[in-house]
């Protein structure tokens, strides 16, 4: 890498992850073959209208997903990213709603699309609660008496953390993109906030197309192969 900014003491490494980093933990991605959106319509389970129309179907969809998340384990890629914190300031910005980064030991994780292990008041989104176990019941209510829904950002909803995420990307000394098709905005636009001179390393067996972005380095590999190798180099 010609730009060695990330080697300076206290360098800040920013990592943007998508479903691909959790694929080898057994969690389905969304748009790969046999992806989650092949089995379900986004309009039926991942929009505010779906919640209004059939909350039980939405609740069941996320209960099943939560069960899979709790049964999954972090993989070598999650653990490698946690290890990076021994030498660098690391911020992980994830589109994933699983908690595998946290369970692998990463301490600075920004969940753009929420996290499935918490619920939120359907009346006041900033009221959130931990969910014990995998099932969020239809009878559970917040302290205002409104039904609890998954603490997840649905299609058509605002992404509260996107401004914070963009500011973090603008200050990256090194940017790493792992396991995302970059199909969903505004997350897919974050790479454009990283300064031109900063290296942007993409780890994915099928590297997504990125337009008008300088200084891209491609690692065509699965996360559990490419990420530990990259971290080994960075920790060297
Ligand atoms: N290792 C690394 N990357 C992988 C692996 C793997 N083992 N397997 C698949 N991938 C890559 C695919 O090549 C693809 O680029 O992971 C990416 C998965 O893309 P998507 O399924 O579109 O997932 P993601 O980009 O995270 O979706 C973004 O869309 O549905 C919404 O809210 C949902 O957060 C999600 C957002």
Automatic annotation (TrEMBL):
Matches recorded under Pfam families: SIR2
An example of a Gene Ontology cellular component annotation for this protein is: cytoplasm
- The entry's substrate-binding residues are 62, 65
- InterPro entries with a match to the protein in the record: DHS-like_NAD/FAD-binding_dom, NAD-dep_sirtuin_deacylases, Sirtuin, Sirtuin_cat_small_dom_sf, Sirtuin_class_III, Ssirtuin_cat_dom
EC annotation? 2.3.1.286
PROSITE patterns attached here?
SIRTUIN (PS50305)
Q: Which residues bind NAD(+)?
A: 18-37, 95-98, 179-181, 223
Per the annotation, which location comes first and is thus the protein's main one?
A: cytoplasm
Look at the named UniProt entry and state the broad enzyme category this protein falls under. Answer: transferase
Catalytic residues (UniProt): 113 (proton acceptor)
Give a yes or no for keyword NAD in this entry: yes
Reaction equation(s) it catalyzes = N(6)-acetyl-L-lysyl-[protein] + NAD(+) + H2O = 2''-O-acetyl-ADP-D-ribose + nicotinamide + L-lysyl-[protein]; N(6)-succinyl-L-lysyl-[protein] + NAD(+) + H2O = 2''-O-succinyl-ADP-D-ribose + nicotinamide + L-lysyl-[protein]
Localization per record: Cytoplasm
Q: What is known of its domains?
A: 2 residues (Tyr-62 and Arg-65) present in a large hydrophobic pocket are probably involved in substrate specificity. They are important for desuccinylation activity, but dispensable for deacetylation activity.
- Family to which the UniProt record says this protein belongs: Belongs to the sirtuin family. Class III subfamily.
Which protein is depicted?
A: NAD-dependent protein deacylase
